[in-house]
Amino acid sequence: MAATLELLTENGLGGVSVDEVARRSGVAKTTIYRHWPVRSALILDACTRLSSQHAAPDTGSFAGDLAALMGGMAQLLRTARWASVTPSIIDAAERDPDLATVHSRIQLEHSAPFQVIISRAVGSGDLPPQTDVQAMIADLLGPLYYRRWFSREPLDDAFVGGITERVLGRT
Amino acid sequence: MAATLELLTENGLGGVSVDEVARRSGVAKTTIYRHWPVRSALILDACTRLSSQHAAPDTGSFAGDLAALMGGMAQLLRTARWASVTPSIIDAAERDPDLATVHSRIQLEHSAPFQVIISRAVGSGDLPPQTDVQAMIADLLGPLYYRRWFSREPLDDAFVGGITERVLGRT
């Protein structure tokens, strides 16, 4: 796993093959296949370790929960090795159904806590009942992801706080 | 160029080498290098053809300009070969400075018309003078890109119109 994580970080997904992992780690391929029967299982396991899951916070208010989650996600995007590996996973997902599944699972891990806090806020009346949960998640995560992978502008606290304020301001 | 575009679409950026383009097209490598002195020049040219630039519209209102641009971008994301090649460009940009330049130029082509219409609306008083242009672009393009490459949910007209309404509604 250590060798897999190194290869992922250095070269993206294209650099991870069972052959290369065996060479780098000195572990026999048969042993690797005993733990991860297919390459995509090894990659899913490695990516899950890179990305570190968020639990849904429960600060007592929707604004507090949202600030906690957005801050955590911005931090992850600024620093985590996961952020530099993600584009290669998305690229592979365009062509390989196994990796499309890996991509969906990682994506779901990141969006699920948003789903939890937004649904709770709808239940408690902090958000209106007609709230489109999936659209709100896109409005929150979209600008973060846009800055990290597309415009490559800084993900500073002012920007992150601004997204939250704008989404909260219009509810 | 036709061979390059085929290879890009089939395999992403990793599938495009001057060797492979020469083999597929039957054109000598020396001839290819005469037109594109380095691989990244060939790739930039191909990506530019794939993505089709948008001119900034001028419909007479900011809402109209925005609807035209967002509709065009959603259409591009739903159909263009560019959309399936983009993740491999972003991936390469994480590690290769030449391709980071290619990525920035394509990114700028897509964001520039938004910059034009937002700045014009600030000038005409349709948007307040303190408008953060870059943050507004992130709020508009972020959710579109999020759906195309991350959550892979449908980019239907209701979703696209909703982004625009929410951004307009709070100005």
Structural notes for this entry:
The structure is a homodimer of 171-residue chains. The radius of gyration of chain A is 18 Å and the shape is elongated. Chain A folds into 2 domains: 2-47, Arc Repressor Mutant, subunit A; 56-169, Tetracycline Repressor, domain 2. Chain A is 75% helix and 0% strand. The first copy, chain A, has helices spanning 2-11, 18-25, 29-35, 39-51, 62-79, 81-93, 97-124, 133-151, 157-169. Chain A contains 9 helices and no strands. The longest helix of chain A has 28 residues, at 97-124. Chain A has 171 residues and is mainly alpha-helical. The model of chain A has no long low-confidence stretch (mean pLDDT 90). In chain A, helix 7 crosses helix 8. Chain A starts with a helix and ends with a helix. The interface between A and B is large, with 38 and 39 residues.
Outline of this structure?
The structure is a homodimer of 171-residue chains. By secondary structure, chain A is mostly helical.
Q: What are the SSEs and their pairings?
A:
The structure is a homodimer of 171-residue chains.
Chain A lengths: L1 H10 L6 H8 L3 H7 L3 H13 L10 H18 L1 H13 L3 H28 L8 H19 L5 H13 L2
